Amino acid sequence: MTVDRDGVRDAARYLRSVRPVDPEEIHEYVEGRPHPALVRRVLREEAYDLALVEQPDGTFVPVGDDPVPPAGWAPGQFPERHEDALRDLLVDRLGPGWASGTSGDALRDRLAEVKERYYRRNPVDYDETTALAYAVYHLPGYWAATGYVLDRLAEAGLLPRRLRVLDVGAGVGGPALALFDCLPDGCVVDYHAVEASAAAADCFEALVDPPRGARTVVHREPIESFDAGGPYDLVLCANVLSELDDPVAVARALFEYVADDGTVVALAPADRDTATGLRAVERALVDEGPGTVFDPTLRLWPDAAPADDCWSFDVGRSLDPPGVQRDLDAQGAGGPGDGTFVNGAVRYAYALVRRDGTRRAGIRAERSRHARLGESERHVTKRVDTLVVKLSHDLGEGDANPLFLVGDGSQQTDHFAVLARESGLNAALREAPYAAVLALENVLVLWNDDEAAYNLVVDGEAVVDRAA
Fold first, then answer.
1. What are phi and psi of 248, to 5 degrees?
2. For the segment 81-111, what is each residue's pLDDT rounded down to a tens digit?
3. What is 373-466's CATH topology?
4. Pair 239, 169: CB distance under 8 Å
C-alpha cells in the first residue's frame, strides 16, 4: 500500500509540539487512512528529518537538546554481536571452513601481502578477499580507536543527539559500528558512508545494522567525485587519508561540508608515515584556515604554527583477540598460531578540527610566564618555565628514563620531556594522560645531537603540574 508520506510528516510536525506522536492517531489524519504499522515505518524512516525519537510505548517524541554523554569508552573486547555478524559473513562468502584450507590460506596470504604493501607505501586493491581479511584483522581495532576519539567529543558536550555524519572511506564499517555503540537511546542519526570499493561496501552493508533512529546510506563512489551535500556535524575520515593521492586537497574540500559547529574527525594508524601524514593534513586545515585544533595538538600560542614531525599517537586498552582472529591464526599450515594474525593492540593517531574555534582546553601560554618551544635555541643549558601538551605515552626503552613527546604549537623541531628524577612535585609528567596540558617549572633545556631534538630535563629541581 502506498503511504502519503507528506501527509504523515505534516501531521507529525503539528502534533510533536502538542503531545507524543502516536501512529495510531496519525493514521486517522492521513489520506487513505494507512495502517498504523505503515505510519510507524514512515516515522522511523523520517526520524532524523522530523527530529523525533521512538519511545518504548511506540509513540514518538522530540529529540532532547542535551548532548550525548560520554560513554566512558575503554572496551576490553570486540562485542559478541559484531563478531557474530562478521563470522556469519565469512561463512556466507567462504563456507563453514573459511579459516582452513584454500580460503584460510588465501586470507592469510592476502593479509601478509597487504602488510607488506602498506610497509612499502604501495596501493592496495580491495577485492573480496582483501576486504574479508581486512575485516578479520583490522575491524576490532579500528572500532575501538574510533570510539575513543568520539568519546573525546562527548566529554566536551560536542556530540548532539540529532547527528548528521559523513564517513569518508567507510571501509567495512568499523567507524559506523563505533559511533552507533557510543550513542545512547534517544538519538537520531543521518549517516552517509562513502566507499568506492564494491567489496568493502558489501561488507559494510552486511556488518552494520543501524539502530532504530539511524538512517544509513552507502554511496559507492570515490570521495573525489562525490557531491557531499551537507552540512555535517561530523566529517569522519578514519584510516583513509593516507591512501589518497592528495589527502590535503580532499580534506580541504571536505571541510567545506562541516557545519558551523561541526568537527572533522580524522584517524590514522600509529606508524610514523601515516601519523605524521595525518598531522600534515591537520596543519593544512588550520594554518591556511579556517580550522582550529580541538584535540590533541592544542596550539598554546595563538600567533604560532608548529613545524616538527610530531609523530604522536594514543594507546587504548588492548582487546582480547576475537575468535575469528584466533581461528585464522591457529589453522595456518604451520600448526598452532604464532600470533601473526592476531591483532589486539589499539594504537591510533587522531586529529579533531573544529570550524567554530572551540578548543578542548581554553588555556593559553603567556610571554610573561612561559618560554616558547619555538625559541628553545635561546634557552639551551638554561632552566625555564613552559606550558606544553603531552603528546605521547612513555617512549623510554628498558631501564631508560621515562620520555614523552611534548609540544606547545610553536615548536619547529621535536621536544621531549625527560623524567630524570621523579618526585612528588613532578610525577604529573608520568601520571597525566595523553593530550593533557602541563605546566613545567624550572626544567633544564638541552640539545640532543643524536635525535636532533630538544630535551626538557625534569629532575629533582623541576615541578610539573597538570594545567588542563
1. -65, -45
2. 999 999 999 999 999 999 999 999 999 999 9
3. OB fold (Dihydrolipoamide Acetyltransferase, E2P) (2.40.50)
4. yes
Q: What is the pTM of this model?
A: 0.95
pLDDT digits (tens, 9 = 90+) for 435-460: 999 999 999 999 999 999 999 999 99
Domain edges within the chain: 5-62, 80-354, 373-466
The whole-angstrom separation of Cα 288 and Cα 255 is 12
The helix/strand count (H/E) of the chain reads as: 13, 16
- Cα dist. 440→117, 302, 369, 435, 445 in Å? 42, 19, 11, 15, 11
The total of other beta-carbon atoms located within 10 Å of residue 262's CB is: 25
Under DSSP, the state recorded for 302 is T
Angle at 452 between CA 448 and CA 455, to 5 degrees: 40
Integer Cα distance of 212 and 230 in angstroms: 22
In which region does residue 250 sit, left (phi positive, over 0), alpha (psi from -120 to 50) or beta (all else)? alpha
Helix, strand or coil, per DSSP, at residue 116: helix
What's the Cα-to-Cα distance from 203 to each of 62, 106, 212, 325, 464, rounded to whole Å?
33, 17, 20, 17, 48
Q: What CATH code is assigned to 5-62?
A: 1.10.10
Give the residue ranges of DSSP H helices in 156-236: 174-182, 198-207
- 80-354: what fold? Rossmann fold (3.40.50)
